[in-house]
Amino acid sequence: MRILLIFCLALLSSGLYAQTVIVNPNGTHSVVHDNGNHKVVVNPDGTHSILVGSDANKTIINHDGTHSQVIDHGNTKVIVNPNGTHTVLISNGKTHQVLVNPSSGTHTLTIKNRGARTITHPDGSVTQINKGKKKARS
Fold it and tell me: What is the pTM for the complete model shown?
């Protein structure tokens, strides 16, 4: 589930070339550093996950060294998890996304509203993501 959350959060921060702070359901914070084709997620425990790629095929390098593949089909993205299961992310316009979890079939809903995002997890917990300001480029 952590891999799915990391992927979802990295995708949500894809429009920035700055930092995004993610408030996790347990109150801890993760930071996403966006460097164009590479995004680095610094987890609350200090571990790092990396999202590499800018085309239809992306790779997530997890903090434990395992890899996940992301296959982009426009509004539908398929994530091949390290254990072989598949997760599907479906986008409906620019404001709503549904993440179908692989083993349980439960759904995670993401709603975008003016730069802030709200993620409602299957257990009812909520994650708030607020974008940082874009840094001026010189």
Answer: 0.56
